[in-house]
Write a structure and sequence with these properties.
This protein is mostly beta strands. The chain has a single domain, classed as Immunoglobulin-like (Sandwich). It has no helices and nine strands. The strands form two sheets. It has a five-stranded mixed sheet with strand order 3-9-8-5-6, with no helix packed on it. Strands 1-2-4-7 form a four-stranded antiparallel sheet, with no helix packed on it. The chain starts with 22 loop residues before the first strand and ends with a strand.
Length: 125
């Protein structure tokens, strides 16, 4: 059983993450932190950082989808990024610059050889 104190009325989510979630192989990792954020400033975190490790220089594409599968935003497409640890921030806005509504979103990360997804949650009041 899992318990957590709730100090205010709102919508809350509980997510299970597999130990190897976001890890495709030892030369590639994807992580989004924080996994829950409030772009409108209703909480402590106004953006999520999409961090990834590349073993080799690669062209990277990062897209954000809502849970219906609709493309919300493209953060980069075929952008050349050097090997090592890298990070790109998502401010919780769609491609038109509007704040996304509260809910779950899928971050799709891909190179020409690898693909990974991670789920993040936007929580606006």
């Amino acid at each position: 059983m899992i318990t957590a104190p709730i100090n205010e009325i709102g919508i809350y989510g509980l997510f299970e993450s597999k130990k190897d979630s976001g890890v495709v192989d030892k030369g590639f990792q994807l992580d989004c932190q924080p996994r829950m954020f409030s772009p409108r400033g209703d909480g402590n975190n106004i953006e999520t950082n999409i961090s990834f490790y590349l073993r080799n220089d690669s062209k990277v594409t990062i897209k954000i989808f809502n849970m219906s599968g609709r493309l919300v935003n493209t953060l980069c497409e075929d952008k050349f990024i050097t090997n090592g640890m890298n990070s790109i921030a998502w401010d919780g806005k769609d491609s038109s610059g509007r704040f996304c509504i509260s809910g779950l979103y899928v971050v799709l990360f891909q190179t020409n050889k690898k693909k990974a997804t991670q789920t993040v949650m936007i929580m606006n009041k």
